[in-house]
Write a structure and sequence with these properties.
Blueprint: E1 3-10, H1 12-16, H2 20-29, E2 33-40, H3 44-50, H4 60-67, E3 72-80, H5 82-90, H6 103-107, E4 116-118, H7 122-132
The protein binds adenosine-5'-diphosphate and magnesium ion.
Residues 54, 59, 63, 93, 111-112, 114, 117, 120 line the site of adenosine-5'-diphosphate.
Length: 140
């Protein structure tokens, strides 16, 4: 399997409840390594641009407001098959449908406030990583 990188975000519902460490322990326990990390508040422009793919969806406005509602932690994870593996550990988008032991099952509030973001393809991971990090900020 290939070594990949993926973009992970701890979302505001999770930072608010002080869950960053507990969530990231699941990723580390699954064999993924942190190679970049930053805590920030997204600007509206950043949140709209990041979720541009969803701009026609009914939930877009609410999603952007939620992503602005508190700090986020943006991070790059590296490991074997990291894009798909990270999404497996995250669980399904809707916590009610997520498998036992996943981040969203254990910590997600609802389909919107689902605690984490993860890139959905290697191609999107590269775009999302460069959205937040320069090469010099990624230290493997
Ligand atoms: P994922 O984060 O699992 O890749 P999507 O890309 O489909 O899911 O959606 C992006 C984010 O938009 C979700 O993680 C969630 O925060 C929010 N979202 C998705 N579907 C809904 C919905 N039906 N209602 C409200 N928010 C949603
Ligand atoms: Mg997605």
């Amino acid at each position: 399997m290939a070594i990949e990188r993926t973009l992970s975000i701890i979302k505001p519902d999770a930072t608010r409840r002080n869950l960053t460490g507990k969530i990231n322990a699941k990723f580390e326990d699954a064999g993924l390594s942190f190679i970049a990390q930053r805590r920030l508040r997204l600007t509206r422009e950043q949140a709209e641009a990041f979720y541009d793919v969803h701009k026609e969806r009914a939930f877009f406005g609410e999603l952007v407001d939620y992503m602005l509602s508190g700090p986020v932690v943006v991070q790059v994870l590296e490991g074997e098959n990291a894009v798909a593996h990270h999404r497996e550990v995250m669980g399904a988008t809707n916590p009610a449908q997520a498998d036992e032991g996943t981040v969203r099952k254990d910590f997600g509030v609802d389909v919107q406030e689902n605690s984490v973001h993860g890139s959905d393809s290697v191609e999107n991971a590269a775009k999302e990583i460069s959205f937040f990090f320069s090469d010099a900020e990624i230290v493997g």
